[in-house]
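INFO batch 0412 | record 1 of 1 | parsing
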Amino acid sequence: QVQVVESGGGLVQPGGSLRLSCSASGVISSIDSMAWYRQAPGKERELVAHINSVVGRTTYVESVKGRFTMFRENAKNTLYLQMNSLKPEDTAVYYCNYHTVVNNYWGQGIQVTVSS
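INFO prediction complete | emitting tokens
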């Protein structure tokens, strides 16, 4: 059974950086997209960054453009989210997602807190 695990979260001051990682314990075949989502307290889950594996196109929510970068290490099926110039409004639980034609895999989520 595939397990998806995020790591790299924590507490950081405004303006700081964090790098989130996401890895799958098993083999996930036919991935058509990978993404990072986040959910702040009292808010709905929000798509932060998305990569279409077929065309290799990455898109970002407007609020993180120019600050966040998503990239992947194909050989390890590992996904990263480099977050720079963090703001208090980036505080949320961040989730990794692998999507295939037949399944949708989620990590358990990891807390990112931006506060002085």
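INFO post-check: The radius of gyration is 14 Å.
INFO record closed
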